[in-house]
Amino acid sequence: MRPMLAVPVLAGLALSVAHAARSTSLEEFQGQIAERAGDPKAAVKLWFDAVYVYIGGNQELGEQLITEMSRYKDWKATQGYFTNALDNKPHILRSYANGATPENKYTMDPEKAHVWRSYVKGTSPENGHEVTDIEAIEVQTRFQSGEEPTADSRNIRMFCHSTGADNDRPLKFERDSRGQWRITEFSSMCLGVRPPKDPKAVDF
User: Fold this and answer.
1) Distance from CA of residue 77 to its chain's centroid?
2) What secondary structure does DSSP assign to 176-195, as a single string?
3) CA atoms of 93 and 115, how far apart (whole Å)
4) Is the pLDDT score of 147 beyond 90?
5) Please, where are the H alpha helices in 56-153?
6) Average confidence (pLDDT) over 100-108
């Protein structure tokens, strides 16, 4: 298990990014971006917040928030695996939230499937990637050794841990003219995440 830090990231170490209450409007989210997206760790959190708004049932607002955090606004046309996961395999995205697991069916919302929940800490295929506290979601992220950002960095790559995958998945960000980090690449987030575990299945 990787050591978890809630302070500035060190090479190769993971950190938990806690999720506060989610935005209820585009304007509120834009204010959060202006205040916090200069920190790459906070930018990751903001992007996941947007994703979880979408798969939590508010697709119209979620799409607006994802677009706001995206460097390229045509992501729905260019990120086919991602858009398919949003609409058809949300368990993949839930797998990145701490607490959601294949065993708990990556549960953040009993009516949703598992993909994004696999990125939530504590989730797994065995618990169905269940997330019990939507406002306390944490995502485990890390920089690759030697790739930590500096004041002059324009592009960065961060790795996110999915409880339903064997390897961490990269997210790429670009810093805009206002110093805010916007996501540019996230296609691999949706590949190879295990589905929720069938509680009736027998392990051999």
Assistant:
1) 20
2) -TTS-EEEEE-GGGGSSPPP
3) 4
4) no
5) 59-69, 75-78, 80-88, 90-93
6) 76
In the chain the first and final C-alpha atoms are separated, in Å, by 25
Distance of CA 56 to the CA centre of its chain: 13
User: What would the two tokens of residue 138 be?
Assistant: 């944490």
DSSP 136: G
Global pTM value:
0.73
Question: Which two tokens mark 190?
Answer: 């949706």
- Please provide the size of the chain in residues: 204
User: Facing residues of 142 across strands?
Assistant: 14, 159
Distance CA 74, CA 199 (A): 39
Reading the block at residue 183, the tokens are 């996501």
Give yes or no for a contact between 158 and 25, defined as CB atoms under 8 angstroms apart.
no
C-alpha closest to that of 19 among 1, 36, 34, 38: 36
For the chain, helix, strand, coil in percent to 5 are: 30, 25, 45
Token pair of 117, please?
């929940």
What is the rounded distance in angstroms from the CA atom of residue 98 to the CA atom of residue 16?
A: 9
